[in-house]
Amino acid sequence: MNLRGQNKVDPSFNMSSMTDIVFLLLIFFMLTSTLVTVSAIDVLLPKAGGKTENSKSVAVTITSESMFYINKTKVEVGILESEILKNVGADKKKTIVIRGDKDVPYKNVMKVIDIANKNKLKMILAVKGN
Question: CA distances (Å), 125 to each of 1, 21, 26, 98, in order?
Fold first, then answer.
């Protein structure tokens, strides 16, 4: 007479379910990380109609005729730095939003970037979305 039980438990561990979970997590993180990256290639002028300005930013607009505007006020190139610093304020907590037309020469945009870098100001280069 056999008194041992018929059901035996297999002590080996099956790794296939664990690898499935790891691959699913890998795919999830790969997909979400590609969605987070920002494409900085498109440098077209954003449409300004109906947009409200943030009170913590100063807009520097450069037209295709190389004319500079700070918050819709025309500014000469010679006094551009002093006007930017006057609008930013002494605490320098405001951000400069650079809005350059798509036909603006690169050197004009670099003037504003150089002013911001020299004075350690935060800046954003505004582009048109898709």
Answer: 86, 41, 33, 5
Vertex 128: Cα angle to 52 and 125 (nearest 5) = 80
Domain range summary for the chain, segments of one domain joined by +: 57-125
Could you tell me how many residues make up the chain?
130
SS3 51: coil
Q: Tens place of pLDDT for every residue, the chain, 130 residues?
A: 566 666 777 777 777 888 899 999 999 888 877 665 444 434 455 555 555 545 578 888 888 888 888 888 888 888 888 888 888 887 777 888 888 888 888 888 888 889 888 988 888 887 776 5
Give the ranges where the chain is alpha helix by DSSP (H).
16-36, 80-88, 106-118
| 8 A C-beta contact, residue 92 and residue 54 | no
Q: pTM above the 0.85 mark? A: no
- Sign of the dihedral defined by the CA atoms of residues 86, 51, 47, 130, in that order: positive
CATH 3.30.420.270 fits 57-125, yes or no: yes
